[in-house]
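dumping these here so i dont lose them again. two proteins, back to back, each one seq then structure tokens. dont judge the mess
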Amino acid sequence: MRLLRVKLHQALANYRKPMNYGFVDTYPLPPFSTVKGWFHYVIEATEYRPLNMCIQGSVPTVFMDLQTMIKFDRIRDNKKKNVTDPRPRLEGFKRAFSTSPTYVANIFENDLTIYFQSDQKLLDRFEENILVVDFPSMGRREDLVRIDDVRFVDLEERTFTGRNYHKIDHGIYLNRETANATGIEGINYRMNFKYRIVEGLRYFDKKDIVYVDTGIIDNASFFYDTEENNIVEMIGDYAQ
């Protein structure tokens, strides 16, 4: 199987989990929707393109950063008690500025390896544009990415059994069915993958994913990158 492999490095990153308030938590690796959005941005796509991905990486250090969050709240005037909300106002919108301390989880010095599978012309365009369209970032806009390597690689299918096992020593997202079948335990996520707009509202299609950063595979077959000593499982909606 021929894939496009991209090796990246981030000095600082936050891959924010949805519905986090008061504490901005992060996924251990960038979620599929983030990587898919980055791919579409780089190829300058004007419509959705099916894509399979395998996202891997190390999570050496996570630290907490204390930041000030600025948000808009409803004005809390009480005319009956002649009480006026003292916060600065956004005139015309009946909103007031408010601030609150917020802890943000940051991943420090993260190395990523991402495999892409899609139409060959789209992969070629991504390889050509990755350093041309804009400065690359992953997660927040300020989380810059250093591109260490971009190349096409041919993977072989390898069966791991008994003494010929494979040891997982860095983070990787696996399908939940794969993790269950191989007996590998990790952190279960139901991640957003793509969305549909129906009557102006976004409806997300989700995938059941397991994040694994340690384990032994001794009873399964995977595609294998011999250069990086990586098992590779493609997750997505691209059909060859």
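---- next one ----
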Amino acid sequence: MNLFKNFRSQSYWQLREDLRKGVIDMPRHDMLWEELVAPTFVDEPKTVVEPKDEIKKRLGRSPDHADACVM
């Protein structure tokens, strides 16, 4: 059982798992996929996705497509 620091972390994790397990499928969209694989997760004692500012630094843009998909 995973415990999450916040709803954002839980949502990103759940989408990741659903895609990995083939529960859901979506068409290939290069920008979206780049944003979806960018975040890293840390177990603090609770799982947390890295801050959006860190993702922005690595991508050079805001991961708006990924945020919309996760919502």
